[in-house]
């Protein structure tokens, strides 16, 4: 595999906690992408907002994130007495983890105050109905979309800020988790690879784009299997060594 050719990174969770975190991370990206909209694509933002509210309502995110922050602090504190370590950088990261923990403790609902917002609730109720957000279904939304852009932007920013502690904490935790392992080269025959995961939570698979394949992963925290499939079903099976890169985080 040529090192300079374009590659795609696929990520797969190995436990329910990581599965939830990846979905929330995805929804935050969707919110950020669709937070500037017009009347024709406004529902993209409200779909993401509704899904984010739904997933935060049914998961104990706060306790899991607090546990993760404490675990990351313990790992980093072990490096404080290691010679050659950038103490200033390490201390700043530890201070940030402590600050995030304090913010979580003072904001236990993680954005759920929007659940009681009548305007958002009315939209959420109609989103499950095909075409259920027409102007005659939601005249309040139709009116809101005709408010000045600056007023709508301010309200959107207020809604998103309700998730600020969740967003900041999750972003920091996922960054530390991803940086806990580096990509290593591997090869497999017949497009299949399996191994032990040693309590990993996240698999990151990097494949050359030119292969035109994608991985499907099955497994859990102690063992996993990866099978690669051609994107086009009419592509011939290739039994040569398939080269890819893998990081178990």
From TrEMBL:
Top-level taxon? Bacteria
Q: Which GO terms describe its biological process?
A: division septum assembly; FtsZ-dependent cytokinesis
Taken from the record, one Pfam family name reads ZapD
Alphabetically list the UniProt keywords: Cell cycle, Cell division, Cytoplasm, Septation
- Identify the main location: cytoplasm
Name the InterPro entries for this protein. ZapD (IPR009777), ZapD_C (IPR027462), ZapD_sf (IPR036268)
| GO cellular component terms given for this protein | cell division site; cytoplasm
What does the subunit comment say? Interacts with FtsZ.
Q: What is the lineage of its organism?
A: Bacteria, Pseudomonadati, Pseudomonadota, Gammaproteobacteria, Orbales
Function recorded in the entry: Cell division factor that enhances FtsZ-ring assembly. Directly interacts with FtsZ and promotes bundling of FtsZ protofilaments, with a reduction in FtsZ GTPase activity.
Cell location: Cytoplasm
Its gene? zapD
From which organism does this entry originate?
A: Candidatus Schmidhempelia bombi str. Bimp
Q: Which Gene3D superfamilies match?
A: YacF-like (1.10.3900.10), YacF-like domains (2.60.440.10)
Q: What is the protein name stated in its UniProt record?
A: Cell division protein ZapD
Question: Which family does the UniProt entry place this protein in?
Answer: Belongs to the ZapD family.
């Amino acid at each position: 595999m040529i090192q300079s050719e374009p590659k795609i990174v696929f990520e797969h969770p190995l436990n329910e906690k990581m599965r939830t975190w990846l979905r929330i991370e995805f929804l935050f990206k969707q919110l950020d992408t669709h937070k500037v909209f017009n009347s024709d694509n406004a529902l993209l933002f409200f779909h993401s907002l509704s899904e984010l509210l739904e997933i935060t309502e049914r998961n104990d995110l706060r306790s899991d994130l607090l546990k993760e922050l404490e675990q990351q602090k313990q790992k980093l504190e072990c490096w404080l007495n290691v010679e050659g370590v950038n103490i200033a950088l390490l201390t700043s990261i530890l201070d940030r983890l402590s600050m995030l923990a304090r913010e979580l403790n003072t904001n236990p609902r993680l954005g759920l105050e929007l659940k009681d917002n009548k305007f958002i609730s009315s939209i959420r109720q109609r989103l499950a109905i095909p075409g259920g957000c027409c102007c005659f279904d939601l005249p309040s939304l139709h009116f809101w979309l005709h408010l000045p852009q600056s007023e709508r932007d301010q309200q959107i920013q207020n809604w998103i800020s309700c998730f600020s502690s969740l967003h900041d904490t999750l972003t920091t935790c996922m960054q530390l988790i991803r940086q806990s392992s580096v990509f290593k080269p591997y090869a497999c025959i017949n497009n299949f690879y399996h191994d032990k995961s040693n309590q990993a939570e996240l698999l990151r698979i990097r494949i050359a784009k030119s292969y035109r394949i994608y991985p499907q992963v099955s497994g859990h925290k102690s063992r996993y299997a990866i099978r690669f499939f051609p994107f086009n079903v009419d592509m011939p099976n290739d039994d040569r060594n398939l080269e890819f890169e893998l990081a178990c985080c």
